[in-house]
Amino acid sequence: MIHPEPSWDHHVPLPKLGPLYSRLLVALVSLICFINSYDGDFVFDDSEAILNNKDLNPDTPLSNIWKNDFWGSNLSSNSSHKSYRPLTVLTFRLNYLLAGGLYPVGFHVLNIGLHCVISALMIDVFATLIGGLACDGTAKRLGHVPKASLLAALFFAAHPVHTESVAGIVGRADLLCALFFQLSFLSYCRAFQGEGMKSDKFSVSWIVVSLLLCAVAMLCKEQGITVLGVNGVFDILVICNLDIYELTHKLVSELLKRLIIRLALLLFCGSLLLYARWRIMGTGPPAFTEVDNPASFAENVFLRIVNYNYYYSLNAWLLLCPWWLCFDWSMGCVPLIKSAGDWRIVWLLLLWACLIGLIKQALCSPDSSKRRTLTFGLVLLVIPFLPASNLFFRVGFVIAERVLYLSTAGYCLVLAYAGAHCCCRWRKHKVAAMLALLGMNVVRCAHRSQQWTSEQSLFTSALSVCPLNAKVHYNVGKNLADHGNQSAAIKYYREAVRLHPKYVHAMNNLGNILKEKNELQEAEELLSTAVHIQPDFAAAWMNLGIVQNSLKKFDKAEQSYWNAIKFRKKYPDCYYNLGRLYAELDRHVDALNAWRNATMLKSDHSLAWNNMVILLDNTGNLAQAELIGKEALKILPKDHTIMFSLANVLGKQQKYKESEGFFLNALKINPNAASCHGNLAVLYHRWGKLDLAKKHYELSLKLDPKAPGTNENYNMLKRKLEQRQRTAG
């Protein structure tokens, strides 16, 4: 298995470094590219995969990560995304445990560290692909391509398209998958190394290790299974050193028989993993909508194929020129090609012209090292991308930069060869040119990773890249609304609805803001449209009920609330709002039942508990109000609003000492509550502790000079004190 040293390694304008220094250099470049994302927030998909994922909580049984998908939903659910990545979720859980909570720094540091390790390991992967399994007489591995593999690894380390995978915590799945992909490939290569090892002999144990690592990669992300294809091609072209034109003459050779055995083993294990994956999914593949992947819903097969190929050309452009990067490419960001006369067809023709040219060079070049380099460049470029290609199943995105993480390795290998070839022809300024290219990529990585540190910068950066993307405008609006700038958010929500007239989530959020601004008629129209488009949209039904309640359309509001509960059985907030409606209609029993349902579904629903106490107080059911208040405080022992309401109830029952205790505890938690000081003053007034009453009346009026009734009570107290002084005099 001794291969001649590829001649193009000498033309690479880099110093010849030892293995350790090469790895350190690549890791350092990786660190420089993405280090400024270490203190970023949880952004975009991190909310669902991490912040809202109960599987990360140490109190959740560890076994749940094997039953649920990446987002924490049960795999058997029809709403599940079916992305089964339990080992990735396990690393998130470890981050949670080590940090003692959901602190993003630890998550980001691990992502950056993983990318550094992967980039350093790429030197070994590239060296093996370019130089083969070269051994000396003692079976010691020879480093035939130190400069070529280093250059390709540097290009990989500093490619800006990696930003989503590294700076976005959800990209951990791609990083872990890539790491075990590399280890699986290198283990497969290790099966053919060793003393006296020849191409017709191999270590079964190392192949088993490779297959196990493939399974681990697949448990990090589904894309991991594609390493079997890379291993198979490597076996054919390097281990067996077969030429395409010679295959027909070696059909009966012993070498080919052993190759067929190994390929059959890879195929069998791959099929077994796919079958296991299919069984785990339970209810079949996930159901994606036309918004997620419009090309896959095109009725015309020709247009479907054309649009898929156009997507491929856009992915290729992101590798070639990674300056237009976006966190999301759906919802109109890439308009469909709807006719053969669309000028964009030129791009896919150009893509296939380039691919055919590379394939021709990979197959027909008289230079064996060139054939091997280009072949493996194409193999690494194409095979890991296949799960995202729509060829075997529909995927839930148009373009996703994170799925290019492994494919970038193939591109970087071809780029390194092209760069060395150019340096061979144009020797002048070759070092400056390479450094300039690497430098631009490093700067772009640093800038892009900075954009990923917060949702505001991430979402606004997409406006110039995908101005037609309704989701981009929606996310900008949502971020503004979450930070209290609702007026600015309206503009972006309106634009999102304009770009995508069936965007029910944008309608719902816009309707909520208009409701807060008391623009109830338009809010009702928007929310009514949302539930008409998506009848099972429970949140929109509830919000519509709130608006209708404000418009005094009580019957319609009640029906809207029940529709929300129909489509979301466990909806405590909806029961709470339904209780408010019943209370307004003086249907006290129905109100209490609704609020009780809210607390049964969500035991710490403070508003529902407090409203029950207040309603029972107002209707004279003081004993029951006391019981409910004390029951609530067992669950919410530091809730000052419930303490306040319970203290009022106890005061009316002349349980002054107990009432005083709850008032004082409430004031410890919220000392600036004017109403609490005022009601405590009333309690002391009734109790006969007039000096304390005076003190708290004055505190209440200091905090809120216009507090209703407090001035009158205070004046009454002052007259009483004056009368007492005169009597004493």
Automatic annotation (TrEMBL):
Keywords: Endoplasmic reticulum, Membrane, Repeat, TPR repeat, Transferase, Transmembrane, Transmembrane helix
GO annotation, biological process: endoplasmic reticulum unfolded protein response
Any GO MF annotation of the entry: dolichyl-phosphate-mannose-protein mannosyltransferase activity
E.C. numbers: 2.4.1.109
Keyword Nucleus annotated: no
Annotated Pfam families: TMTC_DUF1736 (PF08409), TPR_19 (PF14559), TPR_8 (PF13181)
InterPro entries: O-mannosyl-transferase_TMTC, TMTC_DUF1736, TPR-like_helical_dom_sf, TPR_rpt
Principal place of residence: endoplasmic reticulum
Repeat (TPR) residue spans along the chain: 470-503, 504-537, 538-571, 572-605, 674-707
Keyword Transmembrane applies: yes
One Gene Ontology cellular component: membrane
Localization terms from the record: Endoplasmic reticulum; Membrane
Residue span(s) of domain DUF1736: 284-356
Biological pathway: Protein modification; protein glycosylation
Topology class, membrane: Multi-pass membrane protein
Chain segments annotated as transmembrane: 20-38, 87-106, 112-133, 201-219, 225-247, 259-278, 310-331, 343-363, 375-396, 403-420
Family to which the UniProt record says this protein belongs: Belongs to the TMTC family.
Name of the protein in its database record: dolichyl-phosphate-mannose--protein mannosyltransferase
